[in-house]
Design goal:
Number of strands of chain A: 0
Number of helices of chain B: 4
Helix content of chain A: over 70%
Largest interface: A-B, 18 and 16 residues
Oligomer: heterodimer
Number of helices of chain A: 9
Shape of chain A: globular
Helix content of chain B: 55-70%
Radius of gyration of chain B: 13 Å
Radius of gyration of chain A: 20 Å
Shape of chain B: globular
Largest sheet of chain A: none
Number of strands of chain B: 0
Distance between the termini of chain A: 23 Å
Distance between the termini of chain B: 15 Å
């Protein structure tokens, strides 16, 4: 996508989300918890949204810069791989405003018809999951393409270590999810335990494994590729990509275990989300800077 | 005119140390845009002119003068090497 169209789309998504935040009725739970008037709630919601919009901008800038670089080398094997990574990052970038808009719309519907909250939550959770699966699969295809271009194989010992670490993470995630489900009624996902484990937890774990593997693959590619100037730019890009993927995994975990659509809670969870949003934004900015340096090599 | 069929490949091989996978594309671009010829038709007579253009291009990528000088010196060794090599046509 051309940069102008990218930023036009970004601006349109921001305007829609800001309008929804202003126009839709306030979230009842937030108003009750913090004793807010309607106006106070909307001001608070906009203040919470502002830093998030900056993060979205970083994400759009990051994928757009990578897309421009990849388009300068489309005929090469690494060019095709970089194009796939850019497409995967596009999914991650677009997922944030789109899920925010969905949450606002479903939250608004649930305000008028409380019975619709269940349906809204289920749809929102599956949309998030679908985007995560598509984004990480495409990014993983791209990083695999880069590894194949080196004609070298990943080390078996590192793969085993990666899997051991992932299994520990997966067990902790399953344990946490089951413990939460036993204490909550109705549960976060509004689904029976079997459906949650097989249609939400298992696919998320698969997507995150692909994401973690992609982070390792880009680091591996970086170590294998020669070129003093090229490697400096690539290291910046690879570090940013790994940061974006890893922080995205944490953010997806936080969103997937959220039990309300447009509720604002000033607790440790919101602080944690902001910390990882900052890491996510820095990751995308590094992707942009690295891509711009790689693009310059192709232009001089 | 001293022609060297492998000259282009030797320039790319040295450039690979600095520009990695972008080396081939970089040298082809310099030859086509500044020497206005097909990379496969490059001769040793073009080398000095090419090195000047490479120095300018790489200066746009980095401020590290030491590494630019190291790269240029490696390329200049190709010129010296080819100057001292007997021309097959003279035999």
């Amino acid at each position: 996508m051309k940069p102008n169209r990218t930023f036009l789309s970004f601006s349109a998504l921001v305007v829609i989300d800001v309008l929804l935040t202003i126009l839709l009725p306030p979230n009842a739970a937030t108003v009750r918890t913090y004793h807010l008037s309607g106006l106070e709630y909307h001001i608070l919601a906009l203040l919470v949204l502002l830093p998030i919009i900056i993060v979205w901008f970083a994400a759009f800038y990051g994928y757009s810069s990578l897309d421009q670089y990849a388009n300068t080398i489309t005929r090469t094997a690494d060019g095709k791989a970089f194009l796939k990574i850019a497409a995967g990052l596009r999914w991650l970038a677009w997922s944030m405003p789109i899920t925010a808009i969905l949450n606002n719309v479903f939250g608004g519907i649930a305000h008028a018809h409380p019975a619709a909250l269940t349906g809204g939550l289920i749809v929102a959770h599956y949309v998030n999951l679908g985007i995560s699966l598509v984004a990480f699969t495409i990014i993983g295809n791209g990083t695999s393409g880069l590894v194949q271009a080196t004609n070298k194989h990943l080390s078996l010992r590192t793969i085993r270590l990666l899997l051991a670490g992932f299994i520990a993470l997966a067990v902790a995630y399953c344990y946490g999810t089951i413990a939460d489900l036993q204490h909550q009624h109705p549960n976060t996902y509004r689904l029976p335990m079997g459906l949650i484990m097989f249609t939400i937890v298992a696919p998320y774990l698969y997507a995150w494994l692909i994401g973690l593997l992609a982070s390792y693959q880009i680091a591996f590619y970086c170590r294998q590729v020669r070129g003093v100037f090229y490697n400096r730019a690539l290291t910046m890009f690879a570090s940013g990509l790994a940061m974006a993927i890893l922080s995205s995994v944490v953010l997806q975990y936080l969103v997937s275990s959220s039990g309300d659509l447009s509720q604002i809670n000033f607790d440790g969870r919101l602080l944690l989300a902001y910390v990882f949003l900052v890491v996510f934004a820095i990751g995308f900015i590094m992707v942009a800077l690295g891509s711009n340096k790689l693009k310059k090599i192709e232009e001089v | 005119m001293a022609t060297s069929p492998n000259l282009y490949q030797r320039v790319v091989r040295i450039t690979h140390i600095y520009l990695g996978p972008a080396a081939d594309r970089f040298i082809a671009r310099q030859v086509e845009n500044h020497l206005h010829k097909d990379p496969s038709r490059m001769t040793t007579d073009d080398l000095e002119h090419l090195i000047d253009w490479i120095r300018v291009a790489v200066s746009l990528l980095t401020d590290d003068a030491e590494i630019i000088e190291e790269y240029v010196q490696q390329l200049q060794r190709l010129t010296d090497h080819d100057k001292h090599k007997p021309n097959p046509k003279d035999r």
